[in-house]
Design goal:
Blueprint: H1 2-36, E1 41-49, E2 55-66, E3 70-72, H2 74-83, H3 87-107, E4 114-118, H4 129-140, E5 147-152, H5 165-172, E6 175-181, H6 187-193, E7 198-201, H7 203-206, H8 213-228, E8 232-236, H9 241-249, E9 254-256, H10 266-279
This protein binds ligand C2E and magnesium ion (3 copies).
Ligand C2E binds at residues 45, 61-62, 73-75, 78, 94, 118-120, 150, 179-180, 236-239, 257-258, 263.
Domain EAL: 24-277
Protein name: Bifunctional diguanylate cyclase/phosphodiesterase
Organism: Photobacterium sanguinicancri
Length: 281
Amino acid sequence: TAKDHGKNQYAFYSKALTKQAEYRLKVEQYLREAIENQSLSLAYQPQIELRTGLCVGVEALSRWYHPELGQVSPIDFISTAERIGMIQPLTELVLKTACTQAVNWQLQGLGSMRVAINISPNHFLDPDFIPLIKRVITDTDIQASNLELEVIETVAQTEHKNLPVFAELKELGVLLAIDDFGTGYSSFASLKHLKLDCIKIDKYFIDDLLTDNKTQLLVGSIIEMAHNLGCSVIAEGIEALGQVEILKRLGCDIVQGYLFCEPSSPDSITALLRNECDHNL
Ligand code: C2E
Ligand code: MG
Ligand code: MG
Ligand code: MG
């Protein structure tokens, strides 16, 4: 009968759901272990100044490889870490590793570089965040002005927007960048509420630069507005040379994307920086 059939269906879905829940628990457990054992790694993506053609900074991007799960995307494991209360130790690990690396490059004579780190919005509500940043600066000896925190527009909304944490960060001298600019619901609010050093224009706009005149006008206006506010501009997700030409014409400061370099191991970045130095001798 239909009723029995329905029951079987239910059993079928309920079994699938249990499987899903089990898998989710397993991933959570693996991630917890990976963060505790500090077995996440970082890839670094160069940021190239258009005026000089030089790498003036790198963005640190978390990577997680697990023998059973394979390479897991940060889009997935960052939200998992947030959900299971492990984002704090993850961010701490990223900050320490990336700042140590940047100082190392500088000590090797490869130039004084900015390192940009993605910070989940919830950190700005955490009273331990400022002490953490202070500790990282002291422990790694990084120049505060070489540490850039990337935040997304949502920090300009609701409970975040009037927090003293942003003024405190400014006082420490660290830089603040707005990531994925233009894709959220609070682009203008973030410009109004935050003292930003840098605006990162999302790939969403860069993708259509070559084919859509309206996008060009929009990006040109964003750049002008950013400059009027005293912010520099990074364009993200550059994949074609034509995009670079347009961005130069529009006055963009810095570019980042696969065209120049994919996020890479520290050793590859060291090699790239060495090469750059040799060329400039
Ligand atoms: P995001 O901060 O906007 O980083 C840019 C993403 O675009 C990176 O993806 C990068 O690999 C990718 N990308 C760079 N150039 C190109 C390009 O030319 N073409 C294309 N198609 N993609 C490009 P990834 O590494 O997978 O990271 C995804 C997101 O995960 C990041 O977006 C960031 O929001 C988040 N994330 C990564 N690491 C961390 C972390 O340590 N902490 C936090 N809170 N979030 C992180
Ligand atoms: Mg970012
Ligand atoms: Mg981005
Ligand atoms: Mg993003």
